[in-house]
Amino acid sequence: MRTVPGSQATKVYRCPGCDHEIRPGTPHLVVWPADETGSVADRRHWHRACWEARARRRPSRRW
């Protein structure tokens, strides 16, 4: 997991936790599987609140 500060968030991403856009300039998290077999395509960009709530609700999209 890596924190992306708003100043480095330059693209639009879709959060798998809420299915809403993460707009440029929005601080968020980049998360990838813990095993080393994952690739760049396995990374997902999450709102911090959605990541922290993931155990309490199901992701809105396939994660």
Helices and strands, in order, run as EEEEEH
Number of structural units classed as domains? 1
**Beta-strand residue percentage:** 15-25%
Mean pLDDT: 88
Shape: globular
Q: Number of helical runs?
A: 1
* CA gyration radius, whole angstroms: 11 Å
The helicity comes to under 10%
Question: Can you tell me the residue ranges where pLDDT is under 50 for at least 5 consecutive residues?
Answer: none
Strand order of the largest sheet: 1-4-5
Largest sheet data: 3 strands, antiparallel
Which class best fits the helix and strand makeup? mainly beta
Oligomer: single chain
Cα end-to-end separation: 15 Å
How many DSSP E strands? 5
Protein name: ATP/GTP-binding protein
Organism: Amycolatopsis vancoresmycina DSM 44592
Write up what this structure looks like:
By secondary structure, this protein is mainly beta. It has one domain. The protein contains 1 helix and 5 strands; from the N terminus they run βββββα. A 3-stranded antiparallel beta sheet has the order 1-4-5. A hairpin with a 6-residue loop joins strand 2 and strand 3. The longest helix is centred in the last third of the chain and has 5 residues. The radius of gyration is 11 Å and the shape is globular. It starts with a strand and ends in an 11-residue tail after the last helix. This is ATP/GTP-binding protein. It comes from Amycolatopsis vancoresmycina DSM 44592.
